[in-house]
Input
Amino acid sequence: MPRLTADTPYMHPDCEIKDATFGAYTEVGRGSRIAHSQFGDYSYCDRYADIANTTVGKFANIAAYVRIGATDHPMEKASLHHFHYRAGDYFDDATDDDAWFAHRRGRRVTLGHDTWLGNGAQVRPEVTIGHGAVVAGGAIVTKDVAPYMIVAGIPAVPLRARFSPSIADRMMALAWWDWSHDALHRALGDFRSLSAEAFLERYE
Output
């Protein structure tokens, strides 16, 4: 793994980036596509992720082959095919349907802080994944996921909470993801060794 920096995101080979911004210590895996999205500090995606129209919080862990914000086809129209909204690719005197593309970009996904999306998971447009939530590999998320909830399946359903409601609320109030880089460094040993409850007792 490369040494990450605060100044420049690490882009592996063959990435496609369009209208996207990246915070400190971020990384984009080989062959990934990121469009119309923002990555918070310390977040990364592994190889061949496809992420569109998404606000990614800090410390997000996005595995390989994850798809977030997959764009839809116009099911209410006479044809699903993109010849009519990408018309400039097909007809000399036609233009693309800018209103349709603006509509798709507006259907955003919000991915909370310290989340984990497993290999091959998909998140549909207009879904919010809460802080600390886990999406199992291969799941397709069609509805919002509560903070610190683990979901799996097609469509994804809750399996269990990572923590009790009181621990989850305290963790969100602590908001360690907003700490400075130096503060994270000082707490590194405790991140490694303490349970969530013990960590809260030390830092609240």
In short: The chain has two domains: 10-72+107-162, 163-204. The first helix runs from residue 98 to 106. The chain has a mean pLDDT of 95. The domain at 10-72+107-162 is CATH 2.160.10.10 (UDP N-Acetylglucosamine Acyltransferase; domain 1).
